[in-house]
Amino acid sequence: MIENEFYSQQNVGPYEYYQVGEFELEEGGVIPQLQLAYRTYGTLNEQKTNAILVPTWFSGTSKNYESYIGPGRALDENEYFIIVVNQIGNGVSTSPHNSGSPIAMEAFPHIRIGDDVRAQYVLVTEKFGITELALVVGGSMGAQQTYEWAVRYPDMVKRAAPIAGTAKNTVHDFLFTQTLIDAITSDPGFKGGRYTSHTEVADGLGRHADIWAVMGLSTEFYQQELWRLFGVESVEQFTQGFLRPLFQSLDPNSLLTMAWKWQRGDVSRHTDGDLAAALNRITAKVFVMPIDEDMFFPVRDCAREQALIPNSELKVIESRLGHFGLFGAEDSYFEQVDCYLRELLASP
Amino acid sequence: MIENEFYSQQNVGPYEYYQVGEFELEEGGVIPQLQLAYRTYGTLNEQKTNAILVPTWFSGTSKNYESYIGPGRALDENEYFIIVVNQIGNGVSTSPHNSGSPIAMEAFPHIRIGDDVRAQYVLVTEKFGITELALVVGGSMGAQQTYEWAVRYPDMVKRAAPIAGTAKNTVHDFLFTQTLIDAITSDPGFKGGRYTSHTEVADGLGRHADIWAVMGLSTEFYQQELWRLFGVESVEQFTQGFLRPLFQSLDPNSLLTMAWKWQRGDVSRHTDGDLAAALNRITAKVFVMPIDEDMFFPVRDCAREQALIPNSELKVIESRLGHFGLFGAEDSYFEQVDCYLRELLASP
């Protein structure tokens, strides 16, 4: 167990824990005492029909969705019971750095998107007694989990909104994620995952951040100096003063656990590799919501999948921030997201 | 001096050397005995009006342009006298690994695109007595040199065709190139540039290649399995069996010399940072030729510059190979390049 203040209640809370207990993994191995950290907004109605589930993205926590939720928003806590759940390995839920033997640090087992969704299913059904989700919505790896929910538990998911993510990860995306992984593991301070503090891997985490600076945004982001949206005065302040410190505060093994999982997100595992068959299982009304400037979940990849989902529409979000549009630094981003989610939630 | 067979006559030749002699650099410092490696095709006519200059791209050599030149092609050696010149630091012309003290290896000075073009000017005028270039054409860093030629020596350049490159490097492109640099310099085997063989930096060069795999091609390249165009049977063979060995055979300090230069390509250095004023100097007829799927020299960045060049047209090359379309693995690429260059060469 390593102390890392980033994941504290004070920094990314409030959150509560749910004890899933012993949890068998798709890749083999067991988490002896899986706990999911989650945060709820609003109240579950008596019929238990107003629940919305929101899974987290790579490097993110439940904190990231605060700006997506509020009175008067599409995700309105006065109308819905919203559960934001931290994915396994994200540093808040059970993760390498907060686990003891036999799954501490470099010994942490491989996790699949399917593991997350099965664990979330336990949370949703056993903790809250929910058998129907009005909506599953999430960005990036949250979109991967959203797709997995819709394919794995079609009877339970009424609506789904995968934002800036795919049902089956692409080869290009796999290669991109590998560069993020290698930036960390190539740091001598990483020591095969046996560092004693994440600060020993600052160089690798910094290079990891630098690759995000290239792929996470867009060429127009820099042309138009949109780093100003992050409250900085220069591109150096954005990369050196914002992105690097952000990623350098995270746990390396945690990022690697998520990255491995991200690379292999694939709902066609349910149908012997037949993606069309997997997506055809979905009964939810689905809005597929890519971001137009996304460099690694491009619109055309998302549109290909959308075409295979029976009751679906493609809703492209415009954001010159590219994938990091998800951070919600622009009002126009939330205007579009809220508009689409309202329409989706209003559909039968 | 380090032996590296990659740059040998046998591998990337034939080429000849021109001794430029002592050469002062824009960033300060001197190359005591600068030599440029070049290759010519065809015969200079009596009026010396049929010369075409072709500068090399990052990591490339004069060998790379063999597939651009030939009888019946736009760059027809039966009609034109074509000089393909290796940029300074590319491993063939004067470079860190083939220089002795005081500029060997890590002591090699910073080179600017302007240094290349001034050295090439000496070659063209003093060796060949040429005072007019029918065309300057080059891809990527070759495009940067092409722009520099057209701005620095406007009276000498009749036509210019920058392919997949910009006159002023963008911030996004700078950040991308930095990840390529850091992949090499972060390898403990790099030893601050004082390795005794490039093979000691194989890990860093491999990660450098892996970043190219993400940014050098396109998402469609992988979706459509276009690695097959490179004669391989799987994406692993493309990345592990082609890209990694390719970059791992190169000299790390050479790549770093070129990368530093690439990051700072900027014709507005001639006009106190005023890009419009610099491009307005150009009297050549210019075809600006970006590649539609290029991830770091996107069409819109090139189009912005084209709009500032008086006698110019935007000619977009379609290639799902993205930036690596330059390698010419598709017939359709050369059909477009030849078509545009023929039109340009036919213009007054």
Automatic annotation (TrEMBL), chains A, B:
Q: Which residues form the AB hydrolase-1 domain?
A: 64-326
Per its record, what are the GO molecular function terms? Answer: acyltransferase activity, transferring groups other than amino-acyl groups
Coiled-coil annotated residue ranges, if any: none
A Pfam family reported for this protein in Swiss-Prot or TrEMBL: Abhydrolase_1
Query: Entry's InterPro entries?
Result: AB_hydrolase_1, AB_hydrolase_fold, HAT_MetX-like
Instruction: Please name the catalytic residues of this protein.
Output: S140, D294, H323
* Classification via PANTHER family: HOMOSERINE ACETYLTRANSFERASE FAMILY PROTEIN (AFU_ORTHOLOGUE AFUA_1G15350), HOMOSERINE O-ACETYLTRANSFERASE
What the entry lists under NCBIfam families is as follows: PRK07581.1 (NF005757)
Q: What is this protein called?
A: AB hydrolase-1 domain-containing protein
Taxonomic source organism: Caryophanon tenue
